[in-house]
Amino acid sequence: xxxxxxxxxxxxxxxxxxxxxxxxxxxTGRLEDDIVIKLLSEDPSNYEDAPLEGxxxxxxxxxGREILRGVPxxxxxxxxxxxxxxxxxxxxxxxxxxxxxxxxxxxxxxCLQIGNQSRPRIFDLAIKRPDVLYEEVVEVDERVTxxxxxxxxxxxxxxxxxTQTPDAEIVRGxxxxxxxxxxxxxxxxxxxxxxxxxxxxxxSIAVCLMHGYTFPDHEALIGRLATEIGFHHVSxxxxxxxxxxxxxxxxxxxxDAYLTPTIKKYISGFQAGFEGGLGSASVKRxxxxxxxxxxxxxxxxxxxxxxxxxxxxxxxxxxAGE
Length: 322
Fold this sequence. Notes:
5-oxoprolinase (ATP-hydrolyzing) activity; 33% helix; Oxoprolinase-like; 5-oxoprolinase; Hydantoinase_A; Hydant_A_N; 6-stranded mixed sheet
């Protein structure tokens, strides 16, 4: 069946650990017009990437002409590509993610080793703690603390600055709480610490500081220094998971730093298989460009432009697609 010229071919893909399922519709929306392709997710003797192979076969079926392997796929007939993938899931389970360093406030290097002390099986005598994802820890000499709660944070800030500690630096946090800055990090010291880690070959960094969810300035400073040094990926906890608890924020930052480089590498290879690459839906709309937009399913079941897909939100991408 020829694809609809108005809408183009819509392709949905579920890339699992064993099999990859691809469904193509010519734009009619009718189930009877669907073409379904099932193939092995790993079959290097026949193809390099299963989703690309599935798309090639679907387009060959719809157009009636064979599209050769290894030739960049023309996206002019494709309306959209939507995909769920277990790339991040498998990398996490098999511990095949990126080598990362965790940056925390001084005195909290073992926060993820200690965890929250939860005991799902409280009477189990043989406790096995999951391994941490990071290889190195950098403790940054910085500290902020929260003042007592007040209904009017601005008035509270003025009162404690004027009467209790005249020389203290008190600011309003993003959560409108009064934040006392006890110690600002030294740029030169932090740069030296990060440089030592960089020289060891580590290129991905997770940053989680105390109260970073409401006072992100110190995390942002570390992120800037890491980028200037040359780290390929920087995960800042206040951007990923702006919540109060330190352990969940640090866990999220580590997961993102550990998995995002793997995700980006896969997505880059996938995009390279198309003529002109793949663009996000927003860019396509702004530029009025023809061709495919590509969206990937996140752990919550929502779709995100392929360029915005990250490791933290990709852990359950495949299962969510099922």
